[in-house]
Structures are given as C-alpha cells and as structure tokens.
Amino acid sequence: MPYTAPTDEHLHLLRNVLGYDRISSTEKFEDAGDDMIAAILSEAGKMAQDVLAPLQRPGDLEPAHLENGVVRTAPGFHDGYKAIAEGGWVGAAADPEHGGMGLPLTITTLVGEMMASACLSLSLNPLMTQGQIEALEAHGSDAIKALYLPKLISGEWTGTMNLTEPQAGSDVGALRSKAVDNGDGTFAISGQKIYISWGDHDFGGNVCHLVLARLPDGVPGTKGISLFIVPKFIPDADGNLGEANSLRVVSLEHKLGLHGSPTAVMEFDGATGWMVGPPHGGMAAMFTMMNNARLGVGTEGLGVAEAAYQKALEFALERKQGKTPVDGGTGTIADHADVRRMLLTMKAQTAVARAIILDTAISTDLFNATQDASFKARAAFLTPIAKAFGTDTGSEVADLGIQVHGGMGFVEETGAAQFSRDVRVTRIYEGTNGIQAMDLVGRKLMDGGDAAFAMLDEIAATAKGNEALAKAETTLRETTKALLASDINARFAGATSFLRAFAITLGGHYLTRGADTENRRALNAFYTAHFLPQVDALCAAATAGDALLYALDTDALAG
Ligand SMILES: Cc1cc2nc3c(=O)[nH]c(=O)nc-3n(C[C@H](O)[C@H](O)[C@H](O)COP(=O)(O)OP(=O)(O)OC[C@H]3O[C@@H](n4cnc5c(N)ncnc54)[C@H](O)[C@@H]3O)c2cc1C
Asked: In testing the pocket of ligand 1, which one of 170, 290, 294 has its CB within 8 Å of the most ligand atoms?
C-alpha cells in the first residue's frame, strides 16, 4: 500500500508550532538537534514506506495463526521486524547505557506514527517492547536491567504486557493470577491472561512477558498486585536461552482487524518469574508502561488517520463522477463540495491529533530533561486526550476514507476498509476511550484544575484576535469550573464530551499558531468554521449531569 512519510509536516510542527528547540537546548537532549532529527525522520520514513507498507495487505490476508501450539506470523513480518530492530528503532528512546539511542520521546513518537501508518499490526510489536523497556528502566533491579534491557533494546527479544483476564478488563484490580515465592529469588506465576498482543511469534529470540499477579498476602484490588517478568525461555546470566518456561499460547483470537498481530490467550502454569518493583507495587510500575503505551496507542490512531487520508486523497483525485462544479478544477470527485468537506475534515483532524500527541511527548521530554514538575502535570493532563482523541481520529478518518471511496471503500482490495477495521481496537485497548475521559475529569482534575487552567491560559494567549477560538476557550473554562463543582458521577457523565471539547479547542490553538502560509491559514479557517462551533454543544452535554442518563431504568432501555 503506497504511503509517503509526512516529514515536512512533522518538521513544521516541531519547528514552528511546538518549540522543539526547547528540548534540544537541554543538556540531556543536546545531541538531538535540528539536523539530526531531520535525518532520523527521513531514515525512519524510508523504512516505513519501502519495507513496512508492503506488509500491510499480506498481514490482513494471511493472518498470524497457531500451528501445533506455535505462532506463525504473516508473510514478510519476520523480515519487516528485522528491519525495525536493525535500524535501532525498538530502543530508539531507551537509555544509551543499555544500548539505546536516547532520543527524545517526541522523535520516537513520530517514528511510531510512520510505522503505524505503514503497517499497524507489525508496529504494535515494538510498541509493546518499548513500554516494557521503560518499565524495566524505571523499576527493574540492576540484575534484571543488565540481563533484559540490552536484548530488548536491540530487538533480539520482544516484550508483552499481561494485564487482562476474563473477569478483569477495565477493572484490572479484579485479576486472579497468583504469584508464590519460590524462596530463591524467583516466583511461580499461575493464571490465564487474555488478549495478549504479540504473546508469541516466530521471529526467534525470547518473548518476555510483564505479568500482573497477586502474592498470597496481596489485598484485593489494585493495591495487592505485583509485577513480574516471565520469559518464554529462562535465560542464564549471560542471556543465553535455556529451558522453556511453564507458559503457553492456548489460542489466538479471530478479530475484526489487526490480523497480522497475534492476540493470544496465555496460560501460566507455575511459570518462573522475577519481581519488578516492590511487592504489591505492581500497578505503580505498570503505570509507567501504560503512560508510554497510552501515548503510543494514540499515535497508532494518528498513523492510521494519516495513511487513510493519503489513500482517500489519491482516490479522489482520480475518480471522475458527475459534472465538475469548479471552473478549472481537476474534473474529479475532489471538486465536489461534499468530498472536499470530507477531505478537509480528514486533513484538519489528523493535523490536530498529531499536534496534541506531540505536545504530550514534548512535555514528557521536558520533564525528563529538567525535572520541572509543571511539565509532568501538563503531560499527565494531555495523555488521556492524546490517547482518546488520537484513536477516535484514527477511526473517524478511516471511516471517512471509506466514504470518499464510495462503493470501492467497501471492497477490501482498495485497503480503505482495512484501515477502519485495524484501527478500531485502538479506541478499546490500553484503557477504553471512556476510561480515558473519566481519567481526565477524575484524577486529572484532582489538582483543583491547575493543569487544565494552565492549558487554557496557553490557549487564551493564542486566541487574542481570534474570536472563535477565544469563545471556545471561555466556554471550556466555564465548563471546567462547572465540572470541578459537580459530584463525580455527574463529571463521568460528561467526560467524553468534555474530552472532545478540550481536544477540539486545543486544535484551534495549534492550527492558529502554525498558520504561517496561505494553505495553513486556509486549513485553519476551515477548522474554525467547522470544528470550533462544536465546542459549545459538547460543553452543554458535558455539564448536563448524570440524572438524565438514569431517567430510563434498565427495563425501559429494553422497552
Ligand atoms: C486486539 C486486542 C489487543 C489487546 N492487547 C492487550 C495486551 O497486550 N495486554 C493486555 O493486558 N490487554 C490487552 N487487551 C485487552 C484490552 O486492554 C481490554 O479489552 C480493555 O482494557 C477493555 O477491557 P474489556 O475488554 O474487559 O472490556 P470491559 O472492561 O468489560 O468494558 C466494556 C465496556 O464497559 C465500559 N466500562 C467498563 N468499566 C467501566 C467503568 N468503571 N466506568 C465506565 N465505563 C466502564 C468500557 O469503557 C467498555 O465500553 C487487548 C484487547 C484487544 C481486543
């Protein structure tokens, strides 16, 4: 599937909108200057275009499958994975002490976007490993770091994340997997985990599972959960693979999309594991991984949105239907007003999702480089928006992509439908988008709204002289105050609308800041007319309270 890396757009955002130079002027990231990042983005773009994009269709047509208990991956995936690993992309953000490139998250996020555009199902593999690397860097013992990190960073071994169980989905605290101390520094891990992405593969090396389980004295709920690293093959101290551990893939799920990614039911039967972080401190450790993964999953949505837009635009500029309403136009459906509306919606929304995601990454990098807590709070506030709006955008843009194609969008061979099927799960996994919205109005407003109001102050500064943006900002500020004064279930009732209103207003802020050419001003004018007015309606819904939602009892729902 042809794909062109949007390198110019990436550099525009970094240079002209989001102030990337704030990162490269810190001591920590002084090597990641403008020339270097341009070279890195160009290199990663080439790999995405030339090596990964051709794997997109085969991954859908010949899904990963289980053969006599062994996972067989889609054709070409092993070579594609080798290219990712050999390019150093798995550990690009990791600490150089263990072989990583130490690049800012901002840059590796853009690399992740390009890989997701090219082949989402394969790109999920390094995403999982990257989360594991970050969790081990932050919480692993020195021995675990020395043994696992070099192999994960080089891509020789891969990582997975094992939270979900049949009765414990969004409610991770309900998990039943057990860990028993073997008395020799290891633990015996038993239980069933479901939906484990890239739970196994035939790329060679080791598959390292980060598993949440409860020690015998672990209290019920999330406070009693511990984290363990449980490798498929038990390595010796030098990292040579030894005997197979007591774990297996029971089955792979048949899914709506993302067929190239094996989604495994895993059985751990007294498997040998090593604790990561303190006893009962598993959720805190896992949160490190989940924050990275939330941004990464938002980026998956962004990547698919970009690819779906490129595909739809290419089609629209070839397909002829009806009399062209534009003098001197292309004579294709791209001249029709409604098709233009769809294309501009796709382009604008993708640009906004990218800016939100990158701004989140930039705040994370600035916190890591400076330890200034205000950047941490900013990143924490933006993360649920980046995840939910990024993945909603992936889904909505891919859906519009089908519509632009007309009947051909419903026919698999164009690839438009695959984008929509593949990206759908990103709104579900890594905390459903509903849970993200609840996080935004719950935990992320627990500071009394400080982080939210700081963000709104930034928007207000941009909005000077921009009436529509100023109006959206004022409405959103009032809505934030109203939610802060509401009880928690009323907040939850308005959470999804509030998150979207925030994302759309942020979009006006970024597009206004970046409107430095005639084309960018035109895109911003479209956004101002078509998106910003939605903020009013969304804010009204956000503050409508919860009583309306319960006015129909469950019998009435069925009636
Ligand atoms: C393809 C795929 C890959 C996955 N990969 C992994 C993986 O690698 N590792 C892993 O551990 N898991 C993985 N998952 C699991 C995924 O994270 C869960 O599916 C997700 O967290 C939702 O849990 P659930 O499916 O049990 O849905 P449920 O939790 O049952 O949710 C059902 C609905 O109820 C809503 N809901 C639930 N609780 C609340 C609440 N308190 N308030 C409001 N609404 C609520 C949800 O938003 C959702 O709309 C994967 C799933 C899929 C489909």
From this structure: 170
